[in-house]
Amino acid sequence: MNLNELTIKQAYEGLKNKEFTSVELTKACLNRIKERNKDINAFISVFEESALAEAKKADEMISSGKQQMLTGIPFSVKDAIDTLDLRSTGAAKILDNYVPPFESTVISKIRAQGAVLLGKNNCDAFGHGASNENSMYGPVANPHDLTKVAGGSSGGSSAAVADHQCIFAIAEDTGGSIRQPASFCGIVGLRPSYGRNSRYGIMPMASSLDTVGPMTKTVEDIAILMEVIAGSDEKDATTVPDEVPEYTKNLNKKEKFVIGLPQEYFETDGMHEETRKLVENKIEKIKAHTELEVEFKPVSLPYTKYGIPVYYIIVPSEDSSNLGRIDGVRYGMRSKEAKDLYNIYAKSRGEGFPEEVKRRIMVGTYSLSSGYYDAYYSKAQKVRTLIIEDFNQAFAQVDLLITPTSPFTAFDMNGKINDLMAMYLADVFVSPSAVAGLPGISIPVGNDSKNLPVGMQIIAPRLGEEKLLNFASLVENV
Ligand code: GLN
């Protein structure tokens, strides 16, 4: 096995037992990036020099007995997350030269342990998309088939992990951006509960939905990372004060589970038969596994069908406000064509944002404007409450929900980019729980006949990550 193919746990053990150094591990990842980036395009920036310097420092920490779980482990970060003194573009040209003077809390926590930051992952610009084709730095190809998309918006992160260009990645999920690309690339990705991890330093998209979470090769690695990154933060008032559980200690633990199967998630239009079958096969295997104490129950989430419409009113509305700060004056590149104040705004934003971002800003401005607010934004918020109540009712009967992560596997490059509704509907199974602020994980359950990975989503009640991760660890290899 090549060093870059290791999990966090394996890399930690190898470093501890002096089987290799962090410099060797980091070089293995950097070589893989060099070899593959022209085909896959998972990285917008690679920080070779600083990564090697960090690895050297990590080796010193390890040899002086100061190794922590992430010391010396190379990782990458979605480019919509700010990294101190290191270029962070959000995959939009307007921030092409943006170097943040501060760092997001979750990345600071990881780097404080001596992890090695390899570079920044390509994504849909500011997280807007489900295929990674809305990046102004080119699309990301799926490592399993270069003619297919990697998923989005965190396609660069999922491709980098799946292709072993890093040991793990940190990304953002507003309405599916960690889970859907994880499922397309055959890796594990967790969207945490709203409020569990600090969003300080995450480029804001829709503040009432944005979350930040890990993308890894195993459930155990997710638990390891959550122990490091979760917790309240005075810089993000939406974080909850609840203590962070010892997620790793609670893995593979015998426990009884009642699992809900929401019928609406198995019978949607456009669902691929093979995808459904693979998820159902996994459920059958879990049922047949005698050591697991799992009871399955059919449940109904009737408001699921409003998940996408509600999402596409609330998200653009919040977006239109959040993205207002990136205007060529306070932040970002200024258009060379701009000769007066109006054009500084108009041309800088016109040139610096891709189509989809402009569309969201316009839709959001419209639905927040006087006369339309009640008909759109305010109504969407009311339906959002119904969606939350739907989940509450289900969780009164069951511990967790299982659904496919996506109705289909990775689609063709250019396959949906000109069909807006089709692209938005790609998130049909991942956006309702995001609207409700719930945690969800995607784990791989096998490949279809085209050899493309299929993901299964497990959703938990808010702050139910402990039980969620235990269940995921128990069924991961069933
Ligand atoms: N595909 C969704 C969107 O375009 C999800 C984005 C996200 O989670 N960042 O809004």
TrEMBL record:
Entry annotation: catalytic residues: K78, S153, S177
Keyword Ligase: yes
Domain Amidase: 24-469
Source superkingdom: Bacteria
InterPro entries: Amidase (IPR000120), Amidase_CS (IPR020556), Amidase_dom (IPR023631), AS_sf (IPR036928), GatA (IPR004412)
Catalytic activity as recorded in UniProt: L-glutamyl-tRNA(Gln) + L-glutamine + ATP + H2O = L-glutaminyl-tRNA(Gln) + L-glutamate + ADP + phosphate + H(+)
Gene Ontology terms for molecular function: ATP binding; glutaminyl-tRNA synthase (glutamine-hydrolyzing) activity; transferase activity
Quaternary structure note: Heterotrimer of A, B and C subunits.
NCBIfam families (alphabetical): gatA
The protein's name in its UniProt record: Glutamyl-tRNA(Gln) amidotransferase subunit A
Naturally occurring in which organism (per UniProt): Candidatus Magasanikbacteria bacterium CG_4_10_14_0_2_um_filter_33_14
